[in-house]
Design goal:
The protein has 8 helices and 7 strands; from the N terminus they run E-H-H-H-E-H-E-H-H-E-H-E-H-E-E. It is of the alpha+beta class. It has one domain (5-211): Gcn5-related N-acetyltransferase (GNAT) (Aminopeptidase, 3-Layer(aba) Sandwich). The two termini are 24 Å apart.
């Protein structure tokens, strides 16, 4: 994080009020097929109703039009990307450039139940319970591409889990040597499942878990005491 960004912590009401903007950020970061965005929006809306839900957003300080510096990804021309980025407004603080959110994981939630079954099959029910019985599920962490590599993801994860009463944090990420995977490992997450395929035959994922509080290995910032 830098002095040119502003971070906010949101509850369900504030999150839902910003949902259109956050979906735009999601699209810029993930570049999914456009027809998938409405389904993702519905999932995020449903997540806001889960127990202990909280979110963190990061906006560029001092206003601005939210136009990217031109670092494209797959899924559209530069002009199309710029139009979407102008839509990612963020109020008086400037455009929203990143967000993360999570909630208490519990039986009856799709991700929780699928992962519990996977860990139980791989390592037994006691291991699954140790990680999932009192967990905070980090559901989404997204930073607009041109702002990645500036410590924004780390700062959001620390704020998201600060004071969290749960014993563990869990998440899933692509099972590849991505910057996100490296970030999670540096903050104390370890692999609970590798090459795990969720129903629907998508790409292989790693399911990762960490004891709370998370590690912060940035220079001069010791791990917080519990």
């Amino acid at each position: 994080m830098t002095d040119s960004t502003v971070q906010r912590v949101l509850g369900p009401i504030g999150f839902l009020a910003d949902l259109d903007t956050l979906i735009t950020v999601y699209g810029l970061a993930m570049r999914p097929p456009p027809q998938q965005l409405q389904g993702r929006r519905s999932i995020m809306e449903r997540h806001a109703g889960h127990s202990a839900f909280r979110a963190v957003t990061v906006a560029a300080a001092g206003g601005g039009d939210g136009v990217a510096a031109g670092s494209g990804g797959s899924g559209g021309s530069g002009n199309e990307g710029r139009g979407a980025e102008r839509a990612a407004g963020g109020g008086p603080d400037g455009p929203v450039i990143a967000f993360a959110y999570g909630f208490r994981g519990a039986s009856g939630q799709w991700w929780h139940d699928v992962v519990r079954s996977g860990i139980t099959a791989a390592a037994g029910g006691r291991t699954a319970a140790a990680w999932l019985a009192d967990c905070f599920e980090i559901a989404e962490v997204h930073v607009r591409p041109e702002y990645q590599g500036q410590g924004i993801g780390r700062a959001m994860l620390l704020s998201l889990t600060a004071g969290c009463p749960h014993r563990t944090a869990v998440l899933s990420t692509l099972d590849a040597a991505t910057p996100a995977r490296c970030l999670y490992s540096s903050m104390g997450f370890t692999d609970l499942l590798r090459s795990f395929t969720f129903p629907g035959n998508g790409p292989p994922y790693a399911v990762m878990g960490a004891a709370l509080p998370l590690l912060d290995k940035e220079p001069g910032l010791p791990r917080p005491s519990r």
